[in-house]
Write a structure and sequence with these properties.
heterodimer; A: MetI-like fold; two-stranded antiparallel sheet; about 70% helix; B: alpha/beta; 10-stranded mixed sheet; globular
């Protein structure tokens, strides 16, 4: 029977060398005091972490403004089946709600909210609110006379959905679905489908960036961990220097380097590698996003790897080769398994950061390099459709948590080393 | 030793005294001042020269500048918290419409605005919808397309059709990425829609399809830009043969840096930039007086000497002079409706349709 040192054994051996700790059982009083000490931190987490996330979750399903401004319409449409146009009660309820709007600007706020679900409701609501006082019953006739959109069943479906206080519409929209004119769930028109594809692309890009970071970062971390102190110091500065430079500056520098009239292309033309007409498009596409994100996220991969590699004594590899392992075998059987906690931590850090990236893809990504975060930012800042932004963010958060749990099951979070 | 201490004490007292007097003076001046918020840079400078200085000279009311980056968030926060510190704000017409609808603005009285220098009443002197209860337009800027004269070859593009003609004019095209405002309008005109019908066509699903189909023909050759300074850089770097660009930015590159760039005015998409008064403005009366003064014929004409934007009053055009920096005639460089087939952005159309059109735009881009 040959002696085969399993890597796990080596680690245990290392831990075994430490003197065993005195196992002191804390008293109840000590326990309470310890808890008191963590209170400020818990309060901080509750206020600045849990509460905002809770608010985001809540915003993705709640829809308070239209529900509070059009309570009669919401009630009248509650039992509507969506098969035909609703009856006079619903028309009258809508008119009454719009007459009763507390302030002039409420019509605009209501219109802007409802417009997210059905383009054109913005002006329809404002116009109808302006003229509501002059309308006469039966409203099922006078409303379509004011604007023929009122005889469009899709408008009523949008009102029925849009005036519910609790709604799943944001999640449907985030998954490229919506409520149709008959209140059934239908897929969005093909030309407007966007988010599922972007979720997929985001995961794909984040995975590629993680793989590239690992591929390039592993040898770098190895050199860092095994070089002499002087070389290691210089390498560390080189690694961290870009880290201290503004994200925007680094991203813009990549544009200057990679664009078709940029430094890299100029060099290749000068060397005769490509012709003047054959300049390579390396930016404003997926390539640009990958290059820039890999460079920016590299330290997050290298530092955990470095911290793990630093603790592996070179004697282990020598021991492996003394027992007949070829260099590659020694690496695969001894070194690589021992660096796995660093690989796992680095990969997790880079992947999660990459999933949330949006400035770099926005600048160097072009239309093909947009990620889901770009759309979340768009809905937060431009369209002000915060409900949809919250739903997209919640799905992203859920996916990352699920990934972490799976990862934990496979790699074991207690073994991760974050540097 | 004790003498130098005495001197030190005396000079410290003098400095503190002087500071106190300065602060008192500043407070006194603030009683008669007006806060006007705008976009900063060359644009604010043009307003200072054309509006602020003559206004202060005539009324004695000092004008304080503040910069912002557009949007209605800050105005909304001030009005809703009851702590209004801005008086007049320079807003894009779309933002002005939204702010007005949400009740964040003081209503104006269009009838109180002075007639043009040629006697035309204000209501007719301003371009359509440039003056109403919500806003008073100062300038018109345009989204146009431009090319580098030194690189384009012997044939020069002169209509929007040439922008979409990759056979006749090979090379990349620059387009704005964030949203398709102005781009869809240009695509429809290139497809043969007359400017007056653009928004009617765009409001129908078939019309929207038509605009996107036109853009499909050049999609593979497009370089997308985000910031207003980028298209000028793209042209300068030779990254694109032609690009859509804001006319003012392109003029600056030509006037200040002598770049051989040329604007094609056909299918220019004009957009209003307006002055509004914030609801509950601390100096409401002075703000109203300032609006009437700044949007008078002569002030609007004077601004065009400083920046390549067109005055919102027709009566200002004959008075437009030469560029303050290089002495060039400004009128040929201003986005006036007589140049090419011109469209004016309809803020109400975009308020209604931006949500679904922008979503479709994002999906189209990502495909």
């Amino acid at each position: 029977m040959s002696f085969r040192p399993a890597p796990r054994r080596i680690e245990e051996y290392r831990f075994d060398r430490q003197p065993p700790r005195e196992a002191a059982i804390p008293t109840a009083r000590q326990n309470r005091n310890g808890l008191l000490l963590t209170l400020p931190l818990l309060a901080f987490i509750a206020v600045f972490f849990a509460a905002p996330i809770g608010a985001m979750l809540w915003r993705s399903v709640s829809n308070p403004l239209p529900a509070s401004l059009m309570p009669r319409t919401a009630a009248a449409l509650a039992g509507w089946d969506g098969a035909t146009l609703p009856g006079e009660t619903a028309f009258a309820a809508a008119v009454e709600d719009l007459r009763a709007l507390p302030e002039r600007q409420d019509a605009a706020r209501l219109g802007a909210q409802l417009n997210f679900d059905y383009g054109g409701l913005n002006s329809l609501i404002r116009k109808t609110a302006r003229e509501a006082a002059k309308l006469t019953p039966p409203y099922a006739e006078s409303l379509p006379l004011l604007d023929r959109k009122w005889s469009d069943q899709a408008v009523w479906a949008a009102l029925a959905v849009g005036t519910q206080a609790l709604t799943a519409k944001n999640y449907l929209a985030a998954l490229d679905m919506r409520y149709g004119a008959d209140l059934g769930v239908v897929a969005a028109p093909e030309k407007e489908r966007l988010y599922l594809m972007l979720f997929g692309r985001t995961a794909w890009v984040a995975g590629l960036v993680t793989a590239l970071c690992l591929l390039l970062g592993y040898p770098l971390a190895y050199v860092l961990a095994t070089a002499g102190p002087r070389t290691a110091g210089v390498l560390m500065i080189l690694l961290l220097l870009p880290f201290w430079t503004s994200l925007l500056v680094r991203t813009t520098a990549w544009i200057a380097l990679l664009q078709s009239q940029g430094v890299v292309n100029d060099l290749m033309v000068w060397l005769g590698l490509v012709s003047e007409e054959g300049r390579v498009q390396m930016v404003y596409n997926l390539t640009g996003t990958l290059v820039a994100m890999t460079q920016i996220l590299m330290p997050f991969m290298v530092l955990p790897l470095y911290s793990v590699m630093k603790t592996i004594p070179p004697t282990y590899l020598r021991a492996a080769s003394s027992m007949g392992a070829r260099p590659l075998q020694g690496f695969a059987r001894v070194y690589l398994p021992m660096t796995m906690p660093g690989v796992a931590a680095g990969a997790l850090l880079v992947f999660i950061l990459a999933v949330g990236y949006y400035i770099t893809p926005a600048l160097v990504g072009g239309p093909g390099g947009q990620l889901i975060s770009n759309l979340i930012a768009y809905h937060m800042q431009q369209s002000l459709n915060w409900g949809l932004a919250a739903a997209l963010g919640t799905i992203l958060l859920g996916a990352v948590i699920a990934l972490y749990l799976v990862f934990n099951k496979l790699a074991g979070a207690d073994r991760l080393r974050f540097g | 030793m004790s003498r130098s201490l005495l001197y030190a004490g005396l000079s410290a007292a003098a400095i503190i005294g002087a500071m106190a007097v300065t602060i008192r003076l500043a407070e006194a001046a603030e009683d008669k001042s007006l806060t006007v918020v705008s976009w900063g840079g060359a644009y604010t400078k043009s307003q200072v020269e054309a509006y602020h200085k003559p206004f202060t000279a005539e009324t004695g009311i000092a004008v304080v500048n503040a910069d912002y980056n557009g949007g209605i968030a800050e105005v909304k926060a001030q009005v809703e918290s009851g702590n209004v510190v801005w008086d007049v704000v320079d807003m894009e017409v779309g933002d002005a419409l939204r702010a007005c609808d949400e009740g964040l603005l003081e209503p104006l009285d269009p009838a109180s605005f002075p007639a043009g220098d040629d006697g035309t009443p204000a209501a007719e002197d301003f371009y359509p919808d440039a003056l109403n209860e919500c806003w008073a337009t100062t300038i018109i800027f345009s989204t146009v397309f431009a090319f580098d004269d030194s690189k384009i070859g012997p044939n020069k593009p002169n209509t929007i059709g040439d922008f979409f003609d990759l056979q006749k004019f090979p090379g990349k095209r620059g387009l704005r990425k964030q949203n398709p405002k102005a781009t869809l309008e240009m695509a429809l005109i290139a497809d043969g829609v007359v400017p007056e019908d653009v928004y009617e066509v765009l409001a129908s699903p078939e019309g929207l399809d038509r605009a996107f189909a036109k853009l499909d023909t050049i999609k593979d050759s497009v370089v997308w830009w985000e910031a207003g300074s980028q298209p000028v850089q793209l042209l300068a770097d030779g990254e694109v043969a032609m690009t859509v660009v804001y006319n003012g930015r392109l003029f600056d590159a030509v006037a200040a840096e002598g770049k051989p760039f040329k604007i094609v005015w056909d299918a220019q998409v004009m957009e209003y930039d307006t002055y509004v008064v914030v609801k509950g403005a601390p100096n409401k009366e002075a703000a109203m007086a300032f609006m009437r003064f700044a949007t008078a014929t002569r002030q609007l004409a004077a601004q065009a000497s400083w920046i390549a934007y067109a005055p919102a009053r027709k009566s200002s055009l004959p008075l437009v002079g030469k560029n303050a920096a290089n002495g060039e005639d400004m009128l040929p460089n201003l986005p006036t409706p007589d140049k090419g087939r011109a469209v004016t952005v309809d803020p109400r159309f975009w308020a209604d349709h931006q949500d679904e059109i922008n979503q479709r735009w994002a999906a189209w881009l990502a495909q």
